[in-house]
Structures are given as structure tokens and as C-alpha cells.
Amino acid sequence: MQTDLVAAIQTAAGLDALEACRVHALGKAGAVTTLLKTLGKMSPEERLVQGPRIQGLRETVATAIADRKGALERAALDARLASETIDMTLPADLPPAGTIHPVSQVMDELAEIFADLGFAVATGPEIEDDWHNFSALNIPETHPARAMQDTFYLDPNSTERTVIDEWAAAPPMVLRTHTSPVQIRTMVEVARRSSGAGEPIRIIAPGRVYRSDWDATHTPMFHQIEGLVIDKGITLGHLKWTLETFLRAFFERDDVVLRLRPSYFPFTEPSAEVDVGFSLEKGKRVIGGSDGWMEVLGSGMVHRKVIEACGLDPNEWQGFAFGCGIDRLAMLKYGIDDLRPVFESDVRWLKHYGFSA
Ligand code: PHE
């Protein structure tokens, strides 16, 4: 009996089989337990002989079970260790990291360049009222310039008023069609602060603007940067120097040349459209040199009517302003040829053109 029990224990294939062996031998109705129970009915002489034998059997079986259990557990652990090894020499999977959008990158670059020239950054609301976006900029209601920019008007009958404007606003409200209303807000604030006396102004205003347009070079939302300088004795010469200095710093080339073409904006007089010279390198247009010209921004001397509308004396204060498409600057500097993906948030595109943080 002992040999059979021990043999079964030693060949038990797993912990479950071993437990079955234990119940079979040492359980309540097990073979060894049954034998132990017979001791009570034996004569003292017989018990003296059988007692140690049966106890010995119980111990042998218990020891065999404990040994087998240890062996099985060690084998299970070895198998687990073998299957779960980690190769510490393999490269780790890094969590995906975001990139800086080229437009954000360009906005940062512009803010830095203009900070060196003493310009502060100003902002204004994207939902703008008609007065700041048009009227104060010398664009009266009947003026064709309003049709020039495909304006998004907010529904005046809408009961949804989810946007709380910190500035007093009067309908009709529009999505601002350019950053020029920030000129107005800045000058009005200066006039208010100085009780109409005025003070020098040097600001840039980067931000989102909206026009109803959609093709390879137009998106309904895009970015502009406005520049405004107000002081005493400001001339077109200051404007040209500022633009030249800014574009040379931005494109990181000293051979950037500008061409000012007479133009028309209701809020500047005289007005000039500014072209930047490019050269052809392997069929691609590269900013610098003067093989050809590309329009990059609108500018001019701030119209005296605009200065007046803001509550400043145009006989005392003059200045220049300019407005430039940021997305276009980004495309020119970083070789992006279609504007639409700039706003489509395709991770592959962002990985390709984005900047690491
Ligand atoms: N606001 C004009 C536009 O969006 C650009 C501009 C700004 C022109 C400032 C002159 C002065 O087209």
C-alpha cells in the first residue's frame, strides 16, 4: 500500500492531481485515515506493533506530498520565469509626443522678432462688432470694401448668447475679417487712459480671422498679424525699415528685398502693398534675391480719420500699420504648398511639419 501511494504522489502531474492523492490517502475517508481508525479496536499488544507502522505510513505519505508539492511549485515558477523574461536591451516604446504646430511656431518667432524692436503683443475678440471691424476703420456701411472681405455675420435674431464679451459690443456682430480692429481697440484704450492726450504706441496683434472662402490658398479661418506704430513724426521710411528688418529676421537672410506698390485700404493713406523678392532654387521659390516678386502684406500710414475716430488728435499723432497673413509666412518659410492641411489636424502632417517642443 505504501509503495502505491508514494508512487502515485511522486508522479502526480500537477497540483490538482496531487491534491486528489492527498484526499485519497489522508482525507476523512482516505486509506491511511481508515487504517488509523482501526487502531482503536485493536488489542494493546497488536496496537503496540501496528501503531508505529501506521503512524510511520502517515508520515511517509505526508512527507511525499510535501516534497511533490515543492517540486511542482518550483517547476511552475521556472516555467513562468522562462515565459515572462524581459529583454532589457530592446528599445523602449516611447509614448507618442505632440509637436508644435508650424503656425504656433511662426507666431512665437514673430512675437520674438517684434519684441526685439520694442513691440508689445495686443489682442482683441474674434467676435467683433461692426464698429471696430469696419466703421472705425473708415469703412462706412455703403463702402464696397465690406463686400471685398467675405464677412461672416452673426444672426442678430439668435437667442444664443454664449460668448460674454468683456468689451461693450453692439450688433451687428461679425467674426472679425482682419486683425485691424485691434488697432482701434488699442488706440481707443490709449485715448481713454490719457484722457485724449495720447501716447506712443508700438504693438503687434497676432490672431485668428475669418472669411467665407475655401480653396488651396484660402481657408475660412486663418491667421494674421497686425502691426501698429503711433508716435510723432512717423514716416513711410519707418514703415519700410520695420518691415525689412522683420522679414530679414524672419526668413534669416540679409538679401531679402522689398517692393512697395501703391495700393488702397480705407484705413491707410497712402497705402502700399508689400512684395518680397524671391529666387528660384531647383524650381522652388526661395525668399531672398529678386528673380520675382510675391505679395506678402498690406500696409500704409494710418488714416487721420481712423486716429480721430479713436479719440486722438491726428495733427499730433501719426503712424503706420500693416497686416500680414501668418499662414502664408509659415508656408513660405517651411515649404508648405497647400494651406488646407494646415488646419486639418492630420497627425501625419503635424509630425512632418511640426516642431519638437
Ligand atoms: N487689414 C488689411 C487686410 O486684411 C491689411 C492691412 C492692415 C492693410 C493694416 C493696411 C494696414 O487686408
TrEMBL record:
Which InterPro entries does this UniProt record tie to the protein? aa-tRNA-synth_II, aa-tRNA-synth_II/BPL/LPL, Phe-tRNA-synth_IIc_asu, Phe-tRNA_ligase_II_N, Phe_tRNA_ligase_alpha1_bac, Phenylalanyl-tRNA_Synthase, tRNA-bd_arm
Signal sequence extent:
none
Keywords of the record, alphabetical order, are:
Aminoacyl-tRNA synthetase, ATP-binding, Cytoplasm, Ligase, Magnesium, Metal-binding, Nucleotide-binding, Protein biosynthesis
Gene Ontology MF terms in the entry = phenylalanine-tRNA ligase activity
PROSITE patterns per UniProt: AA_TRNA_LIGASE_II (PS50862)
Catalytic activity, per the record? tRNA(Phe) + L-phenylalanine + ATP = L-phenylalanyl-tRNA(Phe) + AMP + diphosphate + H(+)
Pfam families per UniProt: Phe_tRNA-synt_N, tRNA-synt_2d
Q: What is its EC number?
A: 6.1.1.20
> Can you say what this protein is called?
Phenylalanine--tRNA ligase alpha subunit
- Name of the gene encoding the protein in the UniProt record: pheS
